[in-house]
């Protein structure tokens, strides 16, 4: 049995934004899918609760999930190019989301709502009746955002929304998301491997490694004073003009095998500290401030700090 | 005022879309040829409804010319000649066109609707539902439809509608196989997950998101089914097991054979044979041309710009 995601705990307030960063396969998307109740058939939640507005999502049945998805929590997909049905007009696809959750709504109201969504994401109205293949990549991504927002959800999970877009469009989309978040007072969970994107949008950051959160804190704390060895390595891999003096560029090593690791810190095989303790004991949370925590041993953190 | 303007603009838009789709279709030489041939046959089928007004002599089944007691060649009075009891062959040919259309289209419609629905459900549901439905499809697929029809027809006198229904029942599995495989690949596409995220139910996903994607394929298969249904019905009638109360092209061939005119009356033998070939061919070509129109991905990019 693989524990794709283990020991995760986080909370997010209304109107706030939380970012998940980490390498491929560290469990970011699994978290997103769990929150949507869309885990693959061979996966299950073993322990723990997901509390959303006093409702425990782990106790939901299919029927409840269906009414919940899209209305309370919705998702912006990473593959925007393919997340639209190629043979249905874009406005109909967005109208559908509204109709699913408001079956009594009149057609005129629905189409008004669709137009409102399109003006919110700045797609011109005469492109409403187009097919997805007539859109550019950025427009498709906007349409996906409009679709996710159609029912004014309280939480949006943005799973790598800007991957595969060039930096200019990327910037536009991020601005769009921030604007919309402000306008609708929505909470956003941002999932990305791109530190720059997460730093741009999110106030709080969780760094993930091997299915666990290894460091969490506010944007400033995590990026200015990274304490966990993995976070330091991750930031070191990101090239900036004003480089961090105390961070060395990590060599590329293999990700942990989640099947064989049963004891010790999951990062121990790749960590620079190489202390005996890391291989035998599981590290606990070290409080660095009221908002800043790292999953490591105190002595390692202090040793790294002094290096 | 502005709203009205907009509505008329929308209306114009859909007309424009139709003319564009039409342009794509008609540009295709296969589509053009198919359409010309089909409209000729359509005219023949329509004409068959007006034949009774010419008098009882021209009834395709019972109308015999009292002056003729043997098969005659083309003449002014009987354009294609008469059969051995003096029935007008041209009138029979018109009636045959009508029957071919009825048999072909209704068979194709029933089997494609059935095949598409079963294929989509099977592919989308997966697991035990998929296994059961596909094993049933396998069973139907290996049944020789013509032989079964022959057995049934030799036991009971089958009317043309029963024959249509049986052909349709025998022909859905290959459609559902194709639709299932298409559904399997569609199922894993991100937009299906996106509509799940939006809270769509399974039935909604099947009929609103998967169906429009497999519809071009279903239409394509519908035209191919028309072809095979016409051929099966013709074969059955030629072998003498068709609806005995119904003139059809296959029946004409059966009569020309059983009355021993096979090599004596080409004016009797050739027309129904040529008609069967031409009609099935044109339905096939229609399918190929339609595929291009129905699938927006095959369209040229400039269309929407």
Q: What is the percentage of strand-forming residues of chain A?
A: 5-15%
Biggest sheet architecture of chain B? none
Integer tally of domains of chain A: 2
Please summarize the sheet with the most strands of chain A.
8 strands, mixed
Poorly predicted runs of chain A are: none
Q: Could you name the CATH class of chain B?
A: Mainly Alpha
Helix content of chain A: 25-40%
Shape of chain A: globular
Give the helices and strands of chain A as they follow along the chain: EHEEHEHHHEHEHEEHHHEEH
Oligomer: heterodimer
Shape of chain B: globular
* Strand runs of chain A, count: 10
Question: Cα distance, first to last residue of chain B?
Answer: 27 Å
Determine Rg of chain A (CA atoms, Å): 21 Å
The tally of helices of chain A reads 11
Determine the structural class of chain A based on helices, strands and strand pairing. alpha/beta
Total helical elements of chain B: 10
Indicate how many domains the architecture of chain B comprises: 1
Folded structure, characterized:
The complex is a heterodimer of chains A (307) and B (305). In chain A, the strands form two sheets. An eight-stranded mixed β-sheet of chain A has the order 4-5-6-1-7-8-10-9, sandwiched between helices. The two termini of chain A are 38 Å apart. Chain A is an alpha/beta fold. Chain A is built from eleven helices and ten strands. Chain B is mostly helical. Chain B has one domain (23-304): Orthogonal Bundle (MetI-like fold). Chain B contains ten helices and no strands. The two termini of chain B are 27 Å apart. The relative contact order of chain B is 0.14. Mean pLDDT of chain B is 83; it is low at 300-305. The chains are: A alpha/beta (307), B mainly alpha (305). Chains A and B meet through helix 2 and helix 3 of A and helix 7 and helix 8 of B.
